[in-house]
Amino acid sequence: MLRLVIRRLLQLIPTLLGLSVLLFLWLNRLPGGPASAILGERATEEKKAAINKLLGLDQPVYVQYWRFLKRMVQGDLGTSIQTGQPVWDEFTLRFPATVELSLMAILIAIVVGIPLGYLAARRRGGWLDITAVSVSLVGICIPVFFLALILKGIFAVKLGLLPSYGRLETGINATEVTGLAMLDGLLTGEFDATWDAFRHLILPSVTLASIPLVVIVRMTRASVLEVLGEDYVRTAESKGLEARVVRGRHVLRNALLPVVTAVGLLTGALLSGAVLTESVFSFEGIGKFLYDAIGGRDYPVLVGFIMLITIVFVLINLLVDLAYSIIDPRVRVN
Amino acid sequence: MTAPIETTAASAEAQPEAVLAGAGRSQIEGRSLGQIAWTRFKRDKAAMAGGVVVVCLVLMAALSKPIQAIFDLDPNKLNQDLVDPALQAPKGAWGGMSWDHPLGVDPGFGRDLLARVIEGSWVSLLVAVGATLVSVLIGVILGVMAGYYGGWVDSVVSRLMDTFLAFPLLLFAISLSASVQDGFWGLTGLPLRIAVLIFVIGFFAWPYIGRIVRAQTMSLREREFVEASRSLGARGPFIIFRELMPNLVAPILVYATLLIPTNILFEAALSFLGVGIAPPQASWGGMLTDAADRYESDLQYMFVPGLAIFITVLAFNLLGDGLRDALDPRSK
Predict the structure, then answer these.
(1) Would the N or C end of chain A have less CB density within 10 A of its end CB?
(2) Which tens digits make up the pLDDT trace of B48-65?
């Protein structure tokens, strides 16, 4: 187990090095470049040259790359052109919001998706099965930002039931502990803040949940259908085990293994979806900030965020692999 | 799916003994794989419907300029008189729908939405199909190499595919397409944006094809006809192009069809985020950005581009699923 962790963390180094070369080349070798992003398109050549000298951009490429790498290793990701704040601070400020949104989305997808997929497989061809298959087809075909707009239009604008943007109402004062707004409210006893954060979270997380939900329903359905046909299920039934025990211990437990793998592979899709969802709901997470950074051509933010997201991403995959070896003892043996 | 046997009127009437005796009125004919697949495909109503919609969409996209000329639909003509100056929303109910503007007009500018949806269709399909071709090219080359040669080539390609499939590709695509500026590859404006989107999306979507091709190649490699060819002295390139490729055409066709809708969604997402097709050129993703900016004054607007994307993606998915069932019934 420990060896797996160490090996994976060591693999992170070449990945990040390769990524840093790509990002560096992309950042510095393109026409326009940081000087015109800072000064604007109409800046004079002298001013651009001065900025380039200040940033060390008049040096040879390998010197620049070395300095870039040295700064990165020291944890200095530069400052945002838009806000003037360090990129690291901008990231840590917004990261909990995206974590909260993604966790909620995954939770909704699991709570709805696994029972739906299971029941659809048990009553194959029934109305629930047809519903599950159609829902997942619609889920695949609908762009996540269109779904976001529909939900926002109906529940926030037309019906006025839920807030349409942000994480918390302006009037509510909430003490920040972990950055996860709902959890903070519970920890500090500010239950009105928890309730408000929850109301703000409903629409974005339901939108984002559509991505994992489709995969979970399809995988669970296919996997349960397969397991139901296995010999050991028939054996368990024929030796007179209670139906409840067969379903829980023999069918579900085996059927959920591929589902766990699929959920683990969804991290990337979830992050991409978070960018779109957060930008529609003005949910102040890393996705929304990246979206704003594109508009402002905020290169340090783009580079720094992509590096940090990659690290987070590799760590999440490592956790999924560890979780997998706990659920499935066969993995540990090999 | 059941076996593709169609009983003709003659054979249905014939008694079993008569068939055995060869007294049936119709001759038994051999059917090619294509004919068998077509028979299966015809029975799949959802796939047929998807196919018809796809054909209509492709015609609409290919003939968008003549259609716009004949019906006098100009996607960029401003009709400020149709827009309420105070609200910036179209006058009248249902987003300004009328005989002249069947889908209404857009808020702010009063541009005809039907014309803009038609205009957006060719951009969307061109990018999606172009990107799919790029993916097929990269995916087939790397997939066949990994599947056929195995060993370290396979490990490298497989690791690469795993990484690509799991990463938040949208972020990389955003950064790439946001940073390309006028004059790249000697292109400017719309042709540049389209070329960039085709390459960026195609570059990130290739593992979907590569994975399938690799798996198919690995199973084909062990078959007798490949062994026979090798024992007659055939080398790698000959086996790949003359023995493996003809057998890979069907799966490639199926998964390329299924990749098109994914790429349509990818393009729409990039245009929605403002790094795809730039306004004033109409694109479905870009129209949704406008709709998102003005959803408070004109809620209906988003359904026009949104449903255009939804219907297109659904049609391609149904067609692709149908093709898969028809060409490779075992895969289900």
Answers:
(1) C
(2) 999 999 999 999 888 888
Look up the CATH number of the domain holding residue A135: 1.10.3720.10
> B26 at the A interface (CB within 8 A)?
no
Give residues 145 to 164 of B whose Cβ lies within 8 Å of A. none
Give DSSP secondary structure letters for A248-316: IIIIIHHHHHHHHHHHHHTHHHHHHHHHHHHHHHT--SHHHHHHHHHHTT-HHHHHHHHHHHHHHHHHH
For residues A17 and A159, state if they share a domain. no
Same-domain status, A67 and A98? no
Q: Is residue A244 part of a domain?
A: no
Cα dist from B165 to B17, B159, B260, whole Å: 58, 10, 16
Contact A150 B302 (CB under 8 A): yes
Residues A26 and A99 in one domain: no
The predicted complex's ipTM stands at: 0.81
Is residue A128 domain-shared with residue A47, that is, in the same domain?
A: no
The whole-angstrom distance between A85's CA and the closest CA on chain B is 21
Q: Give a yes or no: residue A248 inside a domain.
A: no
Q: How far apart are CA B271 and CA B288, in angstroms?
A: 9
Q: Are residues A204 and A268 in the same domain?
A: yes
The structural domains of chain B, with segments of one domain joined by +, span 57-331
**Candidates A145, A158, A302, partner chain B, best to mutate (most B CBs within 10 A):** A145
The CATH number for B57-331, chosen from 1.10.3720.10, 3.90.230.10, 2.130.10.10, 3.40.50.2300, is 1.10.3720.10
| Shortest CA distance from A136: residue in chain B | B314
Q: What is the pLDDT along chain A (334 residues), one digit of tens a residue?
A: 777 778 778 877 877 787 777 777 766 655 555 666 666 666 677 777 777 776 666 677 778 788 878 887 887 888 888 888 888 888 988 898 898 899 999 999 999 999 999 999 888 888 889 988 888 899 889 999 999 999 988 888 888 788 877 777 766 666 777 777 777 777 777 777 788 888 888 999 999 999 999 999 989 998 998 888 888 888 888 888 888 888 878 888 888 888 887 887 787 788 888 888 998 888 888 888 888 887 777 778 888 888 888 788 878 877 877 777 777 777 665 4
Token reading at A72: 């990165």
Mark which residues 297-326 of B lie under 8 Å from A by CB: 299, 302, 306, 309-310, 313-314, 317
C-alpha A105/C-alpha A274 separation (Å) is 10
Instruction: Please say whether the dihedral angle defined by the alpha carbons of residues B82, B84, B87 and B92, taken in this order, is positive or negative.
Output: negative
- The minimal CB distance from A30 to the residues B170, B179, B272 is found for B179
Q: Chain A residues with CB inside 8 Å of B128's CB?
A: none
A284 shares its domain with A150:
yes
DSSP A211-250: HHHHHHHHHHHHHHHHHHTSHHHHHHHHTT--HHHIIIII
CB pairs under 8 A between A and B: 113
Q: Which residue from A145, A146, A317 is facing B166, i.e. has the nearest CB?
A: A317
A41 in a structural domain: yes
Decide if B173 contacts A26 (C-beta within 8 A): no
The whole-model pTM stands at: 0.83
